[in-house]
Write a structure and sequence with these properties.
- About 45% of the residues are buried.
- The chain has a single domain, classed as Protocatechuate 4,5-dioxygenase, Chain B, CATH 3.40.830.
- The strands form two sheets. Strands 5-2-6-1-8-7 form a six-stranded mixed β-sheet, sandwiched between helices. The protein has a two-stranded parallel sheet with strand order 3-4.
- By secondary structure, it is α/β, with parallel strands linked by helices.
- The N and C termini lie close together (about 5 Å).
- The chain is built from nine helices and eight strands.
- The longest helix is centred in the C-terminal third of the chain and has 15 residues, at about 190-205.
- Strand 3, helix 2 (about 90-105) and strand 4 form a beta-alpha-beta unit.
């Protein structure tokens, strides 16, 4: 299976009309990209594992409910935003396998039997797999947001790729909310910063794995790094994906300027 880092956009954007998101049609290409994800794999995934920017825990934590509820982790949207459903089955067996792999790599782990799908998971997957029939679980980020630790987590997950599991990292390659809000008003604030960081990111992801991972571990040294990610939770799913990529080199099948910012998705394998 390939591994994928994708942008999940803002809140429930595919399912509501909201002036905040800009003129109609602004997000159409991102929607089309997500719909096309189902055609990415030669065979149907046995299960899906998502590392979402919207879940952090003290330890890497799996979600083990067999019937995960919806977690509407956004605010001040119209009522229909809180009626979205994506009733995929959970994947408790996969969650147990993830914990086994992480434990074998020397990592302490935890489990959450109550947590539901946050919008970093249900937004892209409702578009890619609207039938909601593939068992799906989530793995948290780790508080402290250490990039080297998240690369290590990803490396422990490599065997899942040969076990029919599609691993997705769900975040945004640019996540400065002030810049995005200004961009939604037609102000290009953040555009140049996002371009130089995006250029660095694309160059980094096509390097051999050892060089790639070294640069990702020191991502704060990239040009305009903190201008694009004042807080890195939306970037670190990429570190997990890069770790799980092993020696595969990345490609960038989707990129555009959205709300004034350069946004990219990355595929390995």
């Amino acid at each position: 299976m390939p591994v994928v880092y994708l942008p999940h956009g803002g809140g429930p954007w595919p399912f509501v009309k909201q002036p905040l998101f800009g003129p109609e049609g602004t997000w159409d290409r991102m929607r089309d990209y997500m719909v096309g994800l189902a055609g990415l794999t030669a065979s149907r995934p046995r299960a899906i594992l998502v590392v979402s920017a919207h879940w952090e825990e003290p330890l890497p934590t799996t979600m083990s409910s067999p019937r995960p509820p919806m977690l509407y982790d956004y605010y001040n949207f119209p009522p229909e935003a809180y009626e979205v459903q994506w009733p995929a089955p959970g994947a408790p067996e996969l969650a147990a396998r993830v914990r086994e792999l992480l434990s074998s790599a020397g990592l302490r782990v935890a489990d959450d039997a109550e947590r539901g799908f946050d919008h970093g998971t249900f937004v892209p997957l409702k578009l890619a797999y609207p039938e909601a029939d593939i068992p799906t679980t989530q793995l948290s980020l780790v508080a402290g947001l250490d990039p080297a630790e998240h690369l290590k987590i990803g490396r422990a997950l490599v065997p899942l790729r040969d076990e029919g599991v599609l691993i997705l990292g769900s975040g945004m390659s640019y996540h400065n909310m002030r810049g995005l809000l200004e961009g939604s008003k037609g102000n290009a604030l953040g555009r140049e910063d996002s371009k130089v960081f995006d250029d660095w990111l694309q160059q980094t992801l096509t390097l051999p794995a050892e060089q790639r991972d070294a640069r990702l571990a020191a991502w704060q040294n990239a040009p305009a790094a903190r201008a694009c990610h004042p807080r890195e939770e939306h970037l670190l799913p990429l570190h997990v994906i890069a770790g799980a990529a092993a020696d595969d080199r990345g490609s960038v099948p989707y990129q555009e300027v959205l709300m004034g910012a350069h946004i990219s998705a990355v595929h390995f394998g």
